[in-house]
Amino acid sequence: MQASVRLLTKRRFLPLFVTQLLGAFNDNLFKNAMVLFVVYSVYNDEKAETWFSAIATGIFILPFFLLSALSGQLADQRDKARIIRIVKAAEIGIMTVGAIGLGLAWMGITIHSIAIPLMLLALFAMGIHSTFFGPIKYAILPQHLHDDEVLGGTGLVEAGTYIAILAGTILAGLISVEVAAAVVIMTAIVGYLTGREVPPAPPMGRCDPVDYHFIRASIKLVKGTMHVPRLYLAILSISFFWTIGSILFIQFPPLVKNVLTADKAVASLFLAIFSIGIAIGSVAINRLLKGDVSAKYAPASVIGMGVCLMGFHFVCANWAGATDGQLLSLADFLKHPDAWELTGALLGVATFGGMFVVPLYAFLTTTVEKCEAARTIAANNIVNSGAMVIGSLVAVGLTMLGLAPVNQLLLAAALCPISAWLAWRLHSACRDGQCIVH
User: Can you give the pTM of this predicted structure?
Assistant: First the structure.
């Protein structure tokens, strides 16, 4: 663990770490400020709230599905540090548009006709930003780090990402939308400055030329990646994890408001606890594996996640909420007799989730040739985003059919054994020597 933390003193790692941390912070501050404002201040209907939460999630994910193939190709064919500078410069303009939307919403001016569309447009553009940055933040690690540092570096990136998500999520629940509008612009500027300090990362080896036909490129990339058994199993395992995650994230705001009868600070707390758990799991699994890239703990981790999800469901189902249309404040929520059981179960879900997913991301970048790392992550992002869209549609569909958010937690728990089975197959294949790059 100390060896991993020492990477934070190295220029070959620190600027990238800070840049991705600020990007994750900005994404989540903006998205959660927008969603919480709309759920608590615009709509007053559980179905409409779930619908908007799903739309926001889908809009952010869509660019990953459409453009990941192009982003992965460019990351393998161009200097990754140069791409970072370009996308971080674009973030400043994107957040300016988003800030205008937040400001109009705060002032109550044309909320439905202009403010919300502007915010969704900015969210879509931030999805594009993250699509092009995503493959780089993992694929650049084997290029800048030594072989025995990659798992530790991946764990730090993952932990840092979720700490940033935590900070952005908490802040979104505490500050007003007009303050959030100023913060997202300032964060984008600082992120651009740190991104300029990332050392050069030129292409490694010879790869196929870039195909700018993004649909054809996506199909070709997924086919070319998924036919490799070890990558197929790893990507499917990660995709089931994010399907579960999408169902949870969509349901958190309406579940907190309508089932737990708590205010937006509690909704923010839930998302924050999830982020803390992922960060804890990211660091813990690195310690357990002692630097080795392996899926041996993944099946047990995702089963633990499912058990905690079941516990979370049962506490929610038996929750005694506030009466007379009142919403519990954060202080009142924490005084509730079942609050600690609920937050403990949620922390367990996230911690086991982090232990499950981090080694699989490291696996994707270390079991392929270095010039193929970004494309492999891009293929993973395409399949993951498709799975998350499916999860979002399922959540919306079940809500429209009248299935309560608290009961949809059981669906998420039911997907965990499938992920465990896929991870077990991956680990078994690697023990048989099928994960060696030839």
Answer: 0.73
